[in-house]
Amino acid sequence: MGGLTAAIALRQQGIDVEVHEAAGQLEETGAGLTLGLGAQHVFRALGLQDVIAVEACPAGTLPFLHYRDARVLMGDFDHGSGQADDGAANIVRHIYRADLQKVLIASLGQLGGTICTDHKLIEIDDNGDHAIAKFANGETTKGDLIIGADGVRSSVRAILYPSDEPRFTDHVAYRFLVPMTQAKPFMTLGRSAIFIGPQRTFNRYTMCQGEVVNCAGLVETSEPVPEGWSIGASQDELAQAFSGWHPDILGLIGHASQIIKWGLYDRKPLDRWSNGRVTMLGDAAHAMLPFLGMGAAMAIEDGYILAKTLDMEPDVTKALARYEAARRPRTEQVHAASIMQGKVTQAIDPDTFKPSSAPMNNMEMMAFNPVTAPF
Predict the structure, then answer these.
(1) Of 58, 93, 61, nearest to 77 (Cα)?
(2) Does residue 163 register a pLDDT over 90?
(3) Element (H, E) at 7
(4) For site-directed labelling of 106, which of 137, 189, 225, 237 has its Cα 20 to 30 A away?
(5) Cβ neighbours of residue 253 closer than 8 Å, sequence gap 6 or more
């Protein structure tokens, strides 16, 4: 999402851009995403917010509920319809990842941007005047700058920092979707909610015009689990992980047709994201835990600010220094807050939960506007 955002912003500035994707074809993968306020400010600036809002659902109040009896620990029940709005309101929204990808790909295509699939990066040659990317299929491409927007297991980061590895965070996410026709009996507590309990969190909200419920159960574990969308899990495994939790959660699990098990990894903050004519954004630069729902927003903010600095500063080295100076303090703050939010919401006893201790109540951080912030 961050790479496509950067590509769109660069094309709007008249800068030629190519997007190189390792996968052989662009497919609908993933589940729900939270579009924080910062991400939506970016989309407004790019002229895309109204189109994206049509595909999204307002997030509503997103209350924190006790894992056994569903009493409200923070916020309030959300009985909104989940229907899309015009995007004008400054609120958090949820969207199916494939729907957002579809909008961004279409926008880039209209701007003349190029997307090349089956381009798995294996080598970078930076000679000072330009950088060359070499791919596993034998092809190469040359440009003024290479931007690594390739996730927590970034090939670009592996080339720049070969000894640096993603860290397993002792958390696994179980992700699945349930059609509202099946989920409706288990949604009487409102269209969005986060249940919190001992070493567990269960988040569910509607998307796709309220027709689909996105579910994500986060579980602490000492058993390392790989990252990716290829590891399946059974209903029995997930039900066991949330044994004794509210009947609505177990009911949704009982209607999960395909459960994906995803190990959660992060990266330690780097002193530098850039080296010569190569830089990174999003998870490649600062992968973080999902407890604030800010990972996608950080990548989108990165992409916009990187494009703006390249427009304002023709010298690539100076532009990258300006980009990092603007983004590193912000992403380091959110990275640390995401860890703290997980500790707060997965406390051994949720009865001791104090809303004031939750980093997501830091509105200066959560409502940051990257478009108007100085950089």
Answers:
(1) 61
(2) no
(3) helix 2-12
(4) 137
(5) 176, 215, 217, 235, 238, 239, 242
| Contact assessment for residue 78 and residue 190, using Cβ atoms and an 8 Å cutoff | yes
Which pLDDT does position 228 carry in this prediction? 67
* Type of residue found at 38: G
Return the DSSP state at 34.
Answer: E
Furthest CA-CA distance within the chain: 63
Q: Which residue has the tokens 């177990």?
A: 250
DSSP 155-201: HHHHHH-TT---EEEEEEEEEEEEEHHHHGGG-TTBSEEEEEETTEE
Q: Length of the chain, please?
A: 375
Q: What is the pLDDT of residues 199-227, one digit of tens each?
A: 999 999 988 888 899 999 999 998 888 77
CA distances from 169 to 173, 237, 267, 347 (A): 11, 20, 10, 16
Cα separation, 217 vs 374, whole angstroms? 38
Q: Hey, how many other C-beta atoms are within 10 angstroms of the C-beta on 328?
A: 17
Instruction: Convert the pLDDT of each residue in 120-144 to its tens digit.
Output: 999 999 988 999 999 999 999 999 9
